[in-house]
Design goal:
Blueprint (H helix, E strand, L loop, with lengths): L3 E2 L3 H13 L16 E2 L1 H12 L10 H10 L4 H15 L19 H9 L2
Antiparallel strand pairs: 1-2
Helix pairs in contact: 2-5, 3-4
């Protein structure tokens, strides 16, 4: 129910390309990339609804439901645990995704931009 960063894969690729094309880059770096803003999953569903002009409903499920769904997809116990751990980290308002925003972390592509370029013909 708390807000989390949303970042476009294209923005990640653009930043990675900048580093790879930089002759001074040494081959390692750490940089937070967080998109233009944080939002809740409910807010993301509302944006999808508005942009696609159809109702998109966010339904919160339990971690056991997530594990069971990945098991149905054929994921082994280790993968199921890792994915549930990821979702738990996303759900922790004080966890790994609670990194403070810096100017360097902000990328330009909004969720609306992604929907308009990837979902709408």
């Amino acid at each position: 129910d708390h807000d989390i960063p949303f970042v476009s894969a294209n923005d990640i690729g653009d930043i990675a390309a900048e580093y790879l094309m930089d002759a001074n880059w040494t081959g390692q770096w750490t940089r937070n990339i967080m998109g233009p803003s944080n939002m809740t999953l409910k807010e993301a569903a509302d944006i999808f609804s508005a942009e696609l002009q159809q109702e998109i409903v966010y339904k919160q499920v339990t971690y056991d439901d997530v594990k069971d769904q990945f098991a149905k997809f054929g994921a082994n116990d280790t993968v199921q645990k890792e994915l549930v751990d990821l979702y738990m980290a996303l759900g922790d308002p004080n966890g790994a995704y609670a990194t403070p925003r810096t100017f360097e972390a902000i990328t330009p592509t909004t969720l609306e931009d992604v929907i308009r370029t990837k979902f709408i013909p």
